[in-house]
Amino acid sequence: MKKTKYIPSGGLAFTEEKDMKILAQYAKKGWMVERFTNFGYKLVVGEPKNIDYSLDYQKGADEEYFLFFEEAGWSHVCSIGDEIHLFCATAGTKPIYTDTPTTIEKYEREKKQMGKSALPLLISTIVFLFLSNIDWGFELAGVVMWILGTLSLVLLIFPGLPYLGYQYKLMKLKKGSLH
Amino acid sequence: MARTDSLEMGELTDTAYYILLSLVEARHGYLIMKNIESITNNRFSVGPASMYTTIKKLLSANLIRIYDDSDQKKKTYIATEKGIELLEKEVQRRREMVIHAEKVLKQRGEIEG
Fold first, then answer.
1. How is domain B14-86 classified at the architecture level of CATH?
2. Which residue from A6, A41, A94, A104 lies 20 to 30 Å from B2 (Cα-Cα)?
3. 25-64 in B: which are within 8 Å (CB) of A?
4. Structure ipTM
């Protein structure tokens, strides 16, 4: 019997809650998350457990951060860099975020990160596509600018779409709270 | 982040209110959580992510300070003078809010009664 399984994610900016539910269902059948992969999660065979998963964004998370989670019953499963962290706890453990203001901050932080990567690409897309429309006197220059512009646009999608995803999530959160 | 930051408006969120209240005495993370649950009879609790975020915020606003960091993992914090002052102001603000509501609800009771 195969001992590992790869589960795709729709992208954390879009399907975080759904992903967490799916992972919990797998855990019930004995498939535990081992680590993040580029496009989802790697699961390994283990003992079936009734657990919840939760995700947090925290750049520069230190020992104290992980201790807070541990003491509240949330064990650290895996991380991407020092920024995205996955935790699990016995089903029914109190959630890691207990109020709207700090939940909003969670997504504000990640939106800002995405914005930092998206902005230079947005600028280069606009600049190169603009330059490709200028008459350079020789055709090749325009073609090169167009290629660079299109390339920037393609790269822009990777931070750009999550940025919009977080923006949408924040809009819903703020609408739901009366702050 | 400035947007609706209640700290910058000189107000405390419920979470910040209870954390600050727990730090009138020096405590570390887990004891802050436990203290909040005990003084509110489990009506209010703070999750670890909300706790970490709020403590960082209170620290940068100088409302609390590190009391002892000899154990990097288990730092203890305590409210500063500025923190206590804001807490007192906040208690007053919340007391007034309750009085406003009681007045209005009492009037409603008199009309209906």
1. Orthogonal Bundle (1.10)
2. A94
3. 29-30, 33, 45-54
4. 0.88
